[in-house]
Every structure is written in structure tokens, then in C-alpha cells.
Design goal:
553 residues, alpha/beta, Four Helix Bundle (Hemerythrin (Met), subunit A), 3 domains, 18 helices
Length: 553
């Protein structure tokens, strides 16, 4: 039997002994009580009547120690040295005996508990000892097994290392053999490659020599062709440009046809036809003028001139009113006198900067001006400064080839100022007489466009200090009052010195000429009355007024 089971048995045995002692003490007390209560029936009844019944667990002193002649028995027991029996004790002795018995039972109980505790301690120590011994035994076995495994692993590793060394040695010998064979093959290939390279180098030198000789011959041929082409261009340059056969030009009257038939002149003609002018008719004249494209300011000026120059009687004469309107219109046109903003020095070309919104006919007008100058046997150079509009440079270059003049142009999107500077400088170096510069023409209310035009103008001055000598703005006559607003913006940016009025033949808004000259004081220099080259005409104020205000029939 192991130690834990032995200790458990001892504890159970001690507890059983304590229980037996307690049971014996209780039995003795019960026997004493029962023996004291055995009395005659009459006396019991009397006692019952005299005293209340007491708990059975605690007999009364009278019952336990009833006066009986037992003193001799008590003395005999004491004389013998024996303990006094319970039934011979008095009340105090019995209580003391009971207390002593209880203390003895308690003491015995504590002794048993102490013995049980010691037994548990011994059992615990025995368990710990057994666990330690078991752990030592297991650790030893594990260590022994580990050592055996390690030994086996070391043997296996040693064996593997030996086999690896043998394999490496075998592979090394094989690699050395293959390397020797590869070296032999490479040496053979190198010798073959050197031989082939030598042959290729020989062939290359031969080919280079042949190509060089061929290139020299080609260069000489091209040089001869270039010289011949340059000589041909020089000869063509010295010749006057071939003149295009001009178709009969349209007259100014043709160009003002729609204005006379549909514009404010037509309205006035209808009002004056065979009538005397009264107050009501003057109101109609005023309405016709104010609703025309000549502008409110110009219409008011014409009416004031009529009212001031004629008496009430004369106001009724249509011919006199017509004459006053014609004279005042001529004053307006002649009052707009433009002056060149610069004068070219001897040897310098006259540089003309041409402005205008896209679609007004700006590039076409430049081409027609170049054509007229060439027919006057003048040397002209065109500069394509509009690098923003697609195909603008190509369009101007087409006109240059058509009229036989050179054209300077850059790539699409190039800096316009740079292209213009190169063109003006080339014109100065080549001693041309006129340089016509095309410029960008995006929306007229675009601030960036105006700044770009100012920049282009400044750059011209770097090439030729007095340039530009003239700034012409191209206006589309069909735009009416919008053309006047365009002219105002361009004038503020570049000091416009003259107007080229295009598409006059295609509109009834010819009266815009009066508005431009009256409000802006900018003279009309050229007027377009058709599509042909000859249809761009110098503007003559008197001729314009005569055709516009011809007396109504």
C-alpha cells in the first residue's frame, strides 16, 4: 500500500475513535438519567402534580441526586482509588464530571485532528517526493533518448557529408572536364570569329571607300544643282513679278447697290419721292436715320445739320435736304484723317501691320494689296504672323506664290512675335520696299489677343525702330454697328491708322462707313466691292458720297 492510502486510513481511524468515545459518554449519561427516574407510581403522580415536566435531556438535580443512602458506596469507591460512579455523584460533581468528560473529548478530538493534519502533511511530502523521483526518472530517460537520437543524427550527418563530398568531387572532376572541352570550343570559335572579322573589316573598308566616292560625286552634283537653282531664283527675283490678267473691276456704285436699294438711303429715297417734307415727314426721316447702321451719334449729327442749314420753307424741298445730307456726310468722311505713326528711314521698308477678327477677309485683303504693289513694280514681303489659326500661314503663302512675292512663316502654334521679328528683319536685310504683316485674329474681346498684338508691335520696333509705319484694320461691312465696337477695341490696343472695309457689295449696311469715320476719326483707306483682286479699291470720300447720296429720281 502506498503512502497516500496509508495516511487516509489513519485519518479515518482517528475520526472513528472520536465518534465512539462521544457515543459512549452520551450513553452513560442517558443510563444515569433513566435509573434516577425509576420511582413508585404514586410518587411520580404526586411529583407530576407538584412540579412542571422538565426536558428529558437534562434531569433535575432532585431526580439525579435523590436522597438515598449511597454515601457508603461512594466512600468505598474513593477508598479503593476508583472513580466515583455517575449515579453516586452529586449535582456539582456530576457537572464537573460532565465538563471534564467534554474537555477530554475535545482534547481527544484536537489530538486526532492534529494527527490527521500531520498525516496529510506526510502524504503531501510523500507525493512531492514521488513526483520528483518520477520527474528525475523521466528526465533521465528523455536525456538518454535525446543523446541516442543526437548520436544517430551525427552519424547520419557524417555519412551524408561523406556522400556529399564524394558527389562534389565527382561533379568537380566532371565540370573540369567539360570546362576544358568548352575552352577548346571557344578557342576554336574565337579563331574563326577573328578570321571572319578580318574579312568583314576588309569588306567594310572597301564599301566605305566606294560610298565615300559616291557621296562626293553626289555632293558635287547637288552643289551644282543648288548653284543652278540659286542662280535661277536670283534671276527670277530680279525680274518683275508676272502680272495676273485683271478682269474688269467692279465700280463703287456696284458695291453700294444693296445699300441704295435696301439700306437707309432706300428709306430716305422712298420718303422724298415726289413729296414735300412736312413735320410728320421729318419725323420719318429722323426714324430712318436712327434705325440705320450709321449709329445714333452720326444720325443726330446729320439731322442737326439739316435743321441748322435749312429754313422751314427749305425743309419742304427734298432736293435741298438731300444736298445737306450729302455735304455733311462728305465732311464726316474727310474729317477722319489718319496719319502714319512712323516714317521709314532711307533703306528701310514701309512696314504695315494688318489687324482684324477672323472671317473679315484679312488675309485675302493682304494678298490683294500685295498684288497691287507688285503690279506697280514694288518689292514686297509678306509675313505670316497669325500662327494660331489653322492654315492661316498656308493661305498667306498661297497668295505670296500667286502674286510672286516671298513669304516668311513659322510653324503652327509658334510664337507670333518671333515670326514677325524674323520677317521684318529679313525685309530690312533684303531691301524690300513694303512688308505686309498678318496678325492673329481671334475674338476681338479677348484680352489675351490684345496683349499679343501689343507685344507684336513692340517686337517690330526692335527690328526697325520706326516700325510699324501703318496699322490697318480690316472690317466686315456686313457686321454693321459691331464693326464699330471692334474698331474701338483694336484702336485702344494698337493705334489703328486706317480701315479696310470689305464685303461692301454683300450688305445693305454701307452706312457703317459714316459711323466709323464720325465716331473713331479713323479714315477708310481701302474698300472691297467684290471677290476679284481688282475689286479692292482705294477709298475716295467724294466718290463714295456721290454714289451713296445720288439725288433720288
Amino acid at each position: 500500500m502506498n503512502a497516500p492510502m496509508l495516511l487516509s486510513g489513519q485519518v479515518l481511524e482517528a475520526n472513528a475513535s472520536a465518534i465512539v468515545v462521544a457515543v459512549l459518554v452520551a450513553a452513560i449519561v442517558l443510563l444515569i438519567v433513566l435509573s434516577r427516574r425509576q420511582k413508585p407510581a404514586g410518587k411520580d403522580k404526586e411529583a407530576t402534580l407538584k412540579e412542571p415536566e422538565r426536558p428529558r435531556s437534562l434531569p433535575s438535580t432532585k431526580e439525579v441526586f435523590a436522597p438515598e443512602p449511597k454515601a457508603a458506596e461512594k466512600a468505598t469507591a474513593e477508598a479503593k482509588g476508583e472513580e466515583t460512579p455517575w449515579e453516586l455523584m452529586d449535582e456539582q460533581e456530576l457537572a464537573a464530571a460532565q465538563k471534564k468528560a467534554a474537555e477530554a473529548a475535545e482534547k481527544e478530538k484536537k489530538r486526532k485532528e492534529a494527527d490527521a493534519e500531520k498525516a496529510r502533511e506526510r502524504e503531501k511530502k510523500a507525493q512531492e517526493k514521488a513526483q520528483r523521483e518520477s520527474a528525475k526518472t523521466s528526465e533521465g530517460e528523455v536525456q538518454s533518448k535525446a543523446e541516442d537520437s543526437q548520436s544517430k543524427a551525427e552519424d547520419a550527418q557524417k555519412k551524408a557529408e561523406d556522400e556529399q563530398k564524394k558527389a562534389e568531387e565527382k561533379a568537380r572532376k566532371k565540370a573540369e572536364a567539360e570546362a576544358r572541352a568548352e575552352a577548346a570550343r571557344q578557342a576554336e570559335a574565337r579563331d574563326r570569329a577573328l578570321k571572319e572579322a578580318a574579312e568583314a573589316e576588309k569588306a567594310r573598308k572597301k564599301a566605305e571607300a566606294e560610298a565615300e566616292a559616291k557621296a562626293k560625286a553626289e555632293a558635287k552634283r547637288k552643289e551644282a544643282e543648288a548653284k543652278a537653282e540659286a542662280q535661277k531664283k536670283a534671276e527670277e527675283k530680279d525680274k518683275p513679278a508676272a502680272k495676273e490678267p485683271e478682269a474688269p473691276a467692279r465700280t463703287l456704285k456696284d458695291g453700294l447697290g444693296r445699300t441704295r436699294k435696301e439700306g437707309f438711303i432706300a428709306k430716305l429715297t422712298t420718303l422724298f419721292a415726289g413729296k414735300q417734307i412736312g413735320d410728320d415727314l421729318m419725323d420719318d426721316v429722323e426714324e430712318a436715320l436712327f434705325t440705320a447702321d450709321i449709329g445714333v451719334r452720326t444720325a443726330d449729327r446729320l439731322l442737326e445739320a439739316v435743321k441748322t442749314a435749312l429754313s422751314k420753307k427749305e425743309l419742304k424741298d427734298p432736293s435741298k435736304v438731300w444736298e445737306v445730307l450729302r455735304n455733311e456726310a462728305q465732311k464726316i468722311l474727310e474729317g477722319a484723317v489718319g496719319k502714319p505713326i512712323g516714317t521709314p528711314q532711307p533703306g528701310e521698308p514701309l512696314v504695315t501691320m494688318v489687324l482684324g477678327v477672323n472671317g473679315t477677309g484679312k488675309t485675302t485683303s493682304i494678298g490683294k494689296l500685295a498684288h497691287k504693289l507688285v503690279h506697280e513694280e514694288r518689292k514686297v514681303l509678306l509675313v505670316a504672323g497669325d500662327t494660331f489659326r489653322a492654315a492661316a500661314a498656308e493661305q498667306l503663302d498661297h497668295w505670296a506664290r500667286r502674286v510672286g512675292v516671298p513669304c516668311v512663316k513659322g510653324k503652327d502654334g509658334a510664337d507670333p512675335a518671333s515670326v514677325v521679328y524674323d520677317g521684318v528683319k529679313q525685309g530690312l536685310d533684303e531691301k524690300v520696299e513694303f512688308v505686309l504683316v498678318d496678325t492673329a485674329g481671334r475674338l476681338h474681346n479677348n484680352v489675351n489677343l490684345m496683349e499679343e498684338l501689343k507685344k507684336v508691335r513692340r517686337v517690330m520696333g526692335r527690328a526697325i525702330p520706326t516700325a510699324p509705319h501703318e496699322v490697318l484694320m480690316v472690317l466686315d461691312a456686313t457686321t454693321g454697328q459691331n464693326g464699330i465696337q471692334q474698331a474701338k477695341l483694336f484702336k485702344d490696343a494698337t493705334d489703328v491708322t486706317g480701315i479696310i472695309l470689305t464685303k461692301l457689295d454683300g450688305t445693305a449696311k454701307g452706312g457703317v462707313v459714316l459711323g466709323v469715320c464720325d465716331e473713331l476719326k479713323i479714315p477708310i483707306k481701302w474698300v472691297g466691292v467684290g471677290e476679284r483682286v481688282a475689286d479692292l479699291r482705294p477709298f475716295d470720300p467724294k466718290e463714295f458720297v456721290d454714289e451713296l447720296f445720288a439725288p433720288p429720281s
